[in-house]
């Protein structure tokens, strides 16, 4: 079994997709006790080889690019020795953004993004340029957004960008084919990886962690049984 966790912000706020630093640290300790935490590159190798590892594995990811990923999440991950990946939305870089729900937060600038990517703890990959929901876009719009986001990251970080997370986790067959032309792997949907034979490398499921998730529910969402019993979630 492989669990891919998806976080957004790590700060004290009522934003649905923010987790307090205290909750985040406690969740990371739970994860470290129960799983072998692997990098995104290691997950890619597992998917390409098609062999499920003998132990339970987990990958930690973040979306968007909030500044607290550097100031709050990174020190906790570093102390625990846990690798993670940030899927960065390049149009957010250096800005303060406000979500439709009214949550306002600063995002990383390019110097901070480089600091994060060079930390040896958190790797940066693509969340597109404009946080474009691909299922609401034309193919031409999708191509422009994917190319612009990937090119910006590769120019600023001086490395190959091989992975993508769909904004809002929304994907269809047409957009999956477009994304597969640019990336080795992509993330969409909700759930665990339990069978590599049916795991689509361009629709890899993740578990989105939301605000005020009690420990029992966090543990439950890491269980294949809980995903079979949907009412648990």
Describe the structure.
- The chain is α/β, with parallel strands linked by helices and 233 residues long.
- It has a single domain, classed as Glycoside hydrolase/deacetylase (TIM Barrel, Alpha-Beta Barrel), CATH 3.20.20.
- Helix content is 36%, strand content 21%.
- It contains eight helices and twelve strands.
- The strands form three sheets. Strands 1, 4, 5, 6, 9, 10, 11 and 12 form an eight-stranded parallel β-sheet that branches. A two-stranded parallel ribbon has the order 2-3. Strands 7-8 form a two-stranded antiparallel ribbon.
- α6 links the parallel β10 and β11.
- α1 packs parallel to α3.
- The radius of gyration is 17 Å and the shape is globular.
Number of helical regions = 8
What multimeric state do the chains show?
single chain
The biggest beta sheet is recorded as:
8 strands, parallel
Number of strands: 12
Radius of gyration: 17 Å
The tally of domains stands at 1
CATH-level-2 architecture: Alpha-Beta Barrel
Helix content: 25-40%
CATH domain class: Alpha Beta
Query: Can you tell me the CATH topology?
Result: TIM Barrel
CATH superfamily label: Glycoside hydrolase/deacetylase
SS-derived structural category = alpha/beta
Strand content: 15-25%
Encode the helix/strand succession as letters.
EEEHEHEHEEEHEHEHEEHH
Alpha-carbon distance between the two ends: 18 Å
Mean of residue pLDDT values: 95
Shape: globular
Low-confidence stretches: none
Topology (elements, then pairings):
Elements (H helix, E strand, L loop, with lengths): L1 E6 L1 E2 L7 E2 L1 H14 L1 E2 L2 H10 L7 E8 L3 H13 L3 E5 L7 E3 L5 E3 L3 H8 L4 E5 L12 H19 L5 E3 L7 H8 L4 E6 L13 E5 L6 H6 L3 H5 L5
Parallel strand pairs: 1-5, 1-12, 2-3, 4-5, 5-6, 6-9, 10-11, 11-12
Antiparallel strand pairs: 7-8
């Amino acid at each position: 079994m492989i669990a891919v966790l998806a976080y957004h912000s790590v700060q004290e706020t009522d934003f649905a997709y923010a987790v307090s630093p205290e909750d985040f640290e406690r969740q990371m300790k739970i994860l470290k006790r129960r799983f072998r935490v692997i990098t995104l590159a290691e997950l890619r190798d597992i998917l390409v080889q098609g062999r499920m590892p003998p132990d339970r594995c987990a990958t930690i990811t973040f979306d968007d690019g909030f500044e607290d990923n550097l100031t709050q999440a990174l020190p906790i991950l570093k102390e625990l020795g846990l690798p993670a990946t940030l899927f960065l939305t390049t149009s957010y870089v250096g800005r303060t953004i406000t979500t439709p729900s009214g949550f306002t937060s600063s995002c990383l600038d390019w110097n901070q993004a480089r600091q994060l990517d060079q930390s040896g703890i958190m790797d940066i990959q693509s969340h597109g340029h404009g946080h474009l929901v691909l299922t609401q876009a034309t193919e031409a719009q999708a191509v422009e957004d994917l190319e612009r986001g990937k090119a910006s990251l590769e120019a600023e970080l001086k490395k190959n960008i091989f992975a993508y997370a769909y904004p809002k986790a929304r994907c269809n067959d047409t957009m999956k084919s477009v994304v597969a032309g640019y990336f080795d792997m992509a993330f969409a949907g909700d759930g665990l990886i339990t069978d590599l034979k049916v795991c689509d490398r361009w629709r890899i499921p993740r578990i989105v962690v939301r605000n005020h998730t009690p420990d029992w529910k966090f543990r439950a969402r890491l269980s294949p049984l809980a995903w079979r019993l949907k009412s648990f979630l």
